[in-house]
Structure formats: structure tokens, C-alpha cells
């Protein structure tokens, strides 16, 4: 997977969510496992990751960094861009 640049705009949550879903699936990680790995409780882990991926709820910035770490992706914020670099 190549580096991805996501523009910070009104669709940022949907854009990040869609990219993270693609990356999660490429890594073979379930929504539930990812949720647990970033510290969500078992009761809400899968639901929250689903909502993040669909852009239904805002993804807090610290959660984006946590997800990137679990998915082994470097995250760089440069002005109005978020750059994800797979390791």
C-alpha cells in the first residue's frame, strides 16, 4: 500500500474512516480487535470502529494516532493535509 494524503476539510471524518477501513482490511484485522487494541471496551469496540469508518461519528485526533499505530502506519500532519505512510 502506498502513502495516502487526506485533505483536512468538511469530509475529513469520512475520508479518514474510509482509508482506515481499507488499511485495516488489508492488514486482516477485525473492527472488534482494532477497537480493543486502541482501548475501547468490549461492549463498544466493534460499533465505534464501524462508525468511525463510515464517518458517522467524529474521530478524535488522539484516536486517529492510536489507530495508525496499531495498523503500523506513520501519520504526519502538514498544514491542511494528513499523510499516512505505511511501514
Describe the structure.
The structure is a single chain. This protein is 49% helix and 18% strand. By secondary structure, the protein is an alpha+beta fold. It has a single domain (4-86), classed as lambda repressor-like DNA-binding domains (434 Repressor (Amino-terminal Domain), Orthogonal Bundle), CATH 1.10.260. Helix 1 (12-27) crosses helix 3 (45-54) and helix 2 (31-37) packs across helix 3 (45-54). It is globular, with a radius of gyration of 12 Å.
Can you tell me the CATH superfamily? lambda repressor-like DNA-binding domains
Number of domains: 1
Unreliable sequence segments: none
Order of helices and strands: EHHHHEE
- Which CATH class is shown? Mainly Alpha
Sheet with most strands: strand arrangement: 1-3-2
Strand content: 15-25%
Quaternary structure of the protein: single chain
* Mass-distribution shape: globular
- Separation, N- and C-terminal Cα atoms: 9 Å
Q: Examine the coordinates and then state which fold CATH places here, giving the name of the CATH topology.
A: 434 Repressor (Amino-terminal Domain)
- Rg over CA atoms: 12 Å
Average pLDDT over all residues: 90
The largest sheet, given as strand count, sense and whether it forms a barrel, is:
3 strands, antiparallel
Q: At CATH's second level, what is the architecture?
A: Orthogonal Bundle
Strand count = 3
Which structural class is indicated by helix and strand composition?
alpha+beta
Helix content: 40-55%
Number of helices: 4
Amino acid at each position: 500500500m502506498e502513502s495516502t494524503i487526506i485533505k483536512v476539510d468538511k469530509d475529513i471524518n469520512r475520508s479518514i474512516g474510509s482509508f482506515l477501513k481499507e488499511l485495516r482490511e488489508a492488514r486482516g484485522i477485525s473492527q472488534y480487535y482494532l477497537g480493543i487494541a486502541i482501548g475501547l471496551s468490549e461492549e463498544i469496540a466493534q460499533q465505534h470502529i464501524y462508525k468511525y469508518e463510515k464517518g458517522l461519528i467524529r474521530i478524535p485526533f488522539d484516536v486517529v494516532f492510536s489507530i495508525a499505530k496499531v495498523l503500523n502506519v506513520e501519520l504526519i500532519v502538514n498544514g491542511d493535509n494528513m499523510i499516512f505512510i505505511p511501514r
